[in-house]
Automatic annotation (TrEMBL):
This is Glycolipid transfer protein 3-like isoform X3. GO terms for cellular component: cytoplasm. It holds the Pfam family GLTP. Residues 1-118 form the Glycolipid transfer protein domain.
Length: 161
C-alpha cells in the first residue's frame, strides 16, 4: 500500500502547491481545472487536473476496499485488494502499472494483520466496521461530486500517467 500512499501524497502536494500559489484565485479545485483547461495543459502528465483524476481514483479504490473489507469477512485481503483494483484502477492502468500492481499484490499482509493495524487501542472489530461504514458514507457523496466535475471538464476518461 506504500505505492498507493505515495501516489496520493504526491497528488495532494501538487494540488496544494497550486492552491498556495494564489489562495484567493485557486480556492477550490474547479478554479484549478478551469485554469488548466484555458491553458490547454489539463491532460498533461504534470497537471493538477491529472493529479485530481488519480487522487479521485485512489479514493475510489480505498472506498471500494473498505466496503469489501467490511462486508465480506471471509475473503482474504489479497482477494479484497484484487477485486477493488479490478473495479476501480485497472481500467485506467497501462501494462506497466498493471505489472507493478501484480508485484505489489504479492506483498500484501494477511487480512488479520492488516485489520490489527487499523484497529485503534481499546477498539474492537465491530467498532472498526462502524468507523469504516461512517467513512464510506462521508466519502461517497464527495466522490460523486468530484466525478461529476471531472466529467464536465472531460477528464473522466484519462488513462495512466
Amino acid at each position: 500500500m506504500a505505492v498507493l500512499r505515495q501516489d496520493i501524497h504526491q497528488n495532494i502536494q501538487k494540488l496544494d502547491k497550486m492552491y498556495e500559489s494564489d489562495p484567493s484565485v485557486y480556492s477550490n479545485v474547479v478554479e484549478i481545472l478551469k485554469k488548466e483547461a484555458r491553458e490547454g495543459i489539463a491532460r498533461k502528465p504534470s497537471s493538477c487536473s491529472r493529479a485530481l483524476v488519480w487522487l479521485t481514483r485512489s479514493m475510489d479504490f480505498t472506498v471500494n476496499l473498505l466496503e469489501k473489507l467490511e462486508k465480506d469477512v471471509a475473503q482474504s485481503l489479497e482477494q479484497v485488494v484484487e477485486d477493488a483494483y479490478i473495479t476501480t484502477l485497472k481500467p485506467w492502468h497501462g501494462w506497466i502499472s498493471s505489472a507493478a500492481y501484480k508485484v505489489a499484490l504479492k506483498l500484501i499482509p494477511e487480512r488479520k494483520a492488516f485489520i490489527k493495524l487499523l484497529i485503534a487501542e481499546e477498539e474492537d472489530y465491530d467498532m472498526l466496521k462502524e468507523e469504516m461504514r461512517e467513512l464510506i458514507s462521508l466519502l461517497l457523496p464527495l466522490l460523486d461530486d468530484i466525478h461529476s466535475i471531472l466529467r464536465s471538464f472531460h477528464l473522466d476518461k484519462l488513462k495512466a500517467k
